[in-house]
UniProtKB/TrEMBL annotation:
Confers DNA tethering and processivity to DNA polymerases and other proteins. Acts as a clamp, forming a ring around DNA (a reaction catalyzed by the clamp-loading complex) which diffuses in an ATP-independent manner freely and bidirectionally along dsDNA. Initially characterized for its ability to contact the catalytic subunit of DNA polymerase III (Pol III), a complex, multichain enzyme responsible for most of the replicative synthesis in bacteria; Pol III exhibits 3'-5' exonuclease proofreading activity. One of its GO terms (cellular component) is cytoplasm. Forms a ring-shaped head-to-tail homodimer around DNA. This is Beta sliding clamp. GO terms for molecular function: 3'-5' exonuclease activity; DNA binding; DNA-directed DNA polymerase activity. One of its GO terms (biological process) is DNA strand elongation involved in DNA replication. NCBIfam families: dnan. PANTHER family: BETA SLIDING CLAMP, DNA POLYMERASE III SUBUNIT BETA.
Length: 379
């Protein structure tokens, strides 16, 4: 195998592949990056078992300045290979397999010899049929993940909760994440050409890496789903992820259908107040803030407290306040995450009781976007 390529183009196009490669793996060859020179171009692959990413650097794209002198394949140690390419002096570099999987990398006056591995020993990528594909805009998928995935659990004692639950019914996509203390739920409309229904759970970590890979928000992402794998296709990239096994808990019953107290705020204004209150709450052991709502005075007050440091009290200015008096305590970090996900919008907080979960919804889209937070018992 021998090829020459524009160095900067190569670096830009292997970024996605690099995300899939872990330095900690029980399969040593997976610490490497697989390079295959074909008639179409250079295929670069990385995998860590959970996710696999394959990128085609096309030969017919003039920007790549790719010239393939001979076909072949090699697996190179990803960390060293990446660092070498970044520090080469020339605008282009040439890579050539010389003997016994030894690889010669030259650019300008620099020359590196890197020990590679036989590409035939690299695990095969999963097989996912693409007869029935869903299509979703990268921008919508990116937004969907950012609005929900932070609520997924990071604890492995309930593996199913470390994923994002996706239910696809017709052209409706419902995404839910929960760690049992909070929940994020979002509905969007997609182009489900197959009209098949799906009920799957994708690891949250996979989706975070996926949306980081998007460079063009206007591109479409094609999705193919098999029994235990999902494939995302966009630009010249194939992104595979395993699916989590098991039944996701029924979360519909967790969302209150009625409320006794309602407040409306601008999300940014409320976020600023919660951040101030949490400054002292973080200094305490329990990391809790209190919200006191008074019907008679139409006033809401937020309190933060740390016995070692001090207290903070701030009167809030809700845009509207209706319903009963209420005093509730909660983790301010959960509320801050929910508010950041809601973005720059007007929102409604709905409460039922001091020890019952409360919800946040944008007033412009209350049916399709819900954040739920479980309060903390302070007595």
């Amino acid at each position: 195998m021998k090829f020459t390529i524009n160095r900067n183009q190569f670096i830009n196009q292997i970024n996605n592949v690099q995300r899939a490669i872990s330095s900690k793996t029980t399969i040593p060859i997976l610490t490497g990056m697989k390079l295959v020179a074909t008639q179409q171009g250079l295929i670069v692959t990385g995998s860590n078992v959970d996710i696999s990413v394959q990128n085609l650097i096309a030969q017919d794209n003039e920007d790549n300045e790719l010239e393939i002198a001979s076909l072949g394949a090699i697996v190179l140690p990803a960390r060293f290979f990446n660092e070498i390419i970044k520090k080469l002096p020339g605008e282009k570099f040439t890579l050539e397999i010389i003997e016994n999987n030894q690889t010669l990398i030259t650019s300008g006056n620099s020359e590196f010899t890197l020990n590679g591995l036989d590409a035939n020993n690299y695990p095969h990528l999963p097989e996912v049929e693409n007869n029935d594909q869903l299509t979703i805009a990268a921008e919508i998928l990116h937004q969907l993940v950012n609005e929900t995935v932070f609520s997924a659990s990071t604890q492995e004692n309930r593996p199913i909760l470390t994923g994002l639950h996706l239910k696809i019914t017709g052209n409706e996509l419902l995404a839910v994440a929960t760690d049992s203390h909070r929940l994020a739920q979002r509905k969007v409309t997609i182009n489900n050409q197959s009209q098949n229904n799906y009920d799957i759970v994708i690891p949250a970590k996979s989706l975070v890496e996926l949306v980081r890979s998007f460079r063009d928000s206007e591109q479409d992402v094609k999705i193919s789903i098999s029994e235990n794998q999902i494939l995302f296709e966009f630009a010249q990239t194939l992104f595979y992820s395993r699916l989590l096994e098991g039944n996701y808990p029924a979360t519909d019953r967790l969302i209150p259908q009625e409320s006794s107290t309602q407040l409306e705020f601008e999300a940014k204004t409320l976020l600023d107040s919660v951040e101030r209150a949490s400054l002292l709450a973080h200094a305490g052991r329990n990391n809790v803030v209190r919200l006191v709502i008074e019907k008679a005075t139409k006033k809401a007050t937020i309190y933060g407290n740390s016995p070692e440091v001090g207290t903070v009290e701030e009167d809030l200015q809700p845009l509207s306040l209706t319903g009963e008096d209420l005093e509730i305590a909660f983790n301010p970090d959960y509320l801050k995450d929910a508010l950041r996900a809601l973005g720059d919008t007007r929102l409604r907080l709905e409460f039922t009781a001091p020890l019952h979960p409360f919800t946040l919804k944008p007033t412009s889209d209350m049916e399709n976007f819900i954040q739920l937070i479980t309060p903390v018992r302070t007595f």
